[in-house]
Fold this sequence. Notes:
- The chain has helices at 10-22, 33-40, 59-68, 84-93, 105-118, 152-162, 171-179, 187-203; strands at residues 2-6, 26-30, 47-51, 75-79, 97-100, 126-129, 132-135, 140-143, 146-149, 208-213, 217-222.
- By secondary structure, it is α/β, with parallel strands linked by helices.
- α4 links the parallel β4 (75-79) and β5.
Amino acid sequence: MNVLVVEDERNLADAIVQILENASYNAEAAYDGRSGLRSALSGLYDAVVLDVMLPGMSGYEIVHEMRREGVSTPVLLLTARTATADKVEGLDAGADDYMTKPFEADELLARLRALTRRRGDVMLDEVAFGDITLALDTHDLTCGDSTVHLSGKEFEVMSILMSSTSRVVSKQDLLLRVWGADAEASENSVEAYVSFLRKKLSHVGSKVQITTLRMLGYRLEIFS
Length: 224
Ligand code: CA
């Protein structure tokens, strides 16, 4: 899961990134309001930890702009302020939860878990499409009585495809979300993993196939 941290106090931002990475999230930091908004609108993140007092643009403005653009990524607002009026303003702007600084790492992680659990498209135990289910804890892909285990990257690619069934996922998007922006991986890596996944889908006898749409990317389809 990818988390964006928008916080202008670099020490705090980097500490939060570290907490998240220790808890097996992928986390990236933005240190000002404008770049935070750009990243938040990219669609690459599953949750945003957002400071309120930021140079350039406040956290309230960022979350308001995200919602106006139709981006429903869960947002956890961070602020040093404790006044109830601020909390109401943040939630009114479209934030999902609110946490006052200073906070404990455990509280941050608990609130993030609660936020991402609440989302419709991030299931707790498994995701399903057509005749297949993918267990999020064991990484097992099941069709009827057949089960096959997915490797880490296979699992990440498959879970993105399965939670985006209504739209096409580009190679570039998969590359960024699974391998990260600065990895050595290329679109060939994406193609290789899609090919592994096709073999595994066929191995369990699924009617689900990963269709390549030229110049666009991939989509799951059900063939009978
Ligand atoms: Ca700040």
